[in-house]
Prior knowledge:
The chain is an alpha+beta fold. Helix content is 19%, strand content 31%.
Amino acid sequence: MMIKVAAFAATVAVASASYFQEDFGDGWEDRWTQASKDDLGKFVSSAGEFFNDAEADAGIKTSEDAKFYGMAAKFDSFSNEGKKMIVQFRVKHEQNIDCGGGYVKLFPGTQDVTGISDGDEKAPYNIMFGPDICGPGTRKVHVIFNYKGENKLTKATISAKSDEDSHLYTLIVSPDNTYEVQIDGEKEHSGSLYEDFDFLKPKEINDPEVSKPDDWVDETMIDDPEDTKPDDWVEEKQIIDPEAEQPEDWDEEMDGEWEAPTIDNPEYKGDFSPKRIDNPEYKGEWVHPQVANPEYEHDDAVYDYADFGVIGFDLWQVKSGTIFDSVLITNDDDEAAAGVTAFKACSEGEKAMKKEAEDKKKAEEEAKKAAEEAEKEADEEEDEEDETGDSEPAKDEL
């Protein structure tokens, strides 16, 4: 089953007010530039094994295992000051990814497209967004903003999809200093940039002139001073076996001095610990007084970047096969919603094709199994006839 979305997608493209849009159709190699770092993996055009429309769903696929990938494209520079910014793209880990990135990076327009992967520190970016998977421990959606030269990762835990199907990742950054992450058009997380990121220094800090008094008691429980160890308390774990006797044939000159073996002490009661009681001197948990932080500076627009002009894939993959497609940067809600609609049609057709293939494979396996069982039964019947056949001699043998 193929769901027709080509005409719809074309209409969206014609009416597009986006800053950047890429569906990796004809000529995509001319619009994107490979980074200059040595031995980078190669992106190839592919719709994958399962798709809705082989041509419309073709994206770029990582094609070499255990490689870094670096590729970027330029677009007309813009600022998101006073405007909503939406970043959206499709990712499909059809290879059942074990460890690798599936994110994009947005750079200033001054960034050299060939240099996004240069150096150990990598090229500085404005925003990094998208899924990152490595084993069962790392399955998260990165949302990282560069603020005054430092990369700030969200403190929220946002889970990424780790199956083999296509998923649409959307980041919405708003001028009220909030952000939202959507997966497949559904909200996965939203929050304040002030609360979820450490952009600003704290408004208050511990008063450097004050410290906890030396006589402050913050132990809630103490040993009962009146609970003493009884005189008959036995703490010796091992004792000499009273029933052990030196063997009659023991020769001290040959065998050395005989020592009786030890056994567990039947009277052993364990290490003595006095019972615990409430500390009568307890003053409570000491709270450090706060004062205004002289280094705190408020920023009314932590969301704001003066310059976006380059988008890139700069990532590592152990097992290749991830497909990227339908990249969109816009400030138009309707345009992003149209991308979600197109994605859902793509996803539905992809899943239908996958199910058809799975059903066909299952039917073939069942038919093969049935044929093997029928052949086995026929062989058994033939063997049984050979064993129980007529034993009377033929007339010409009489």
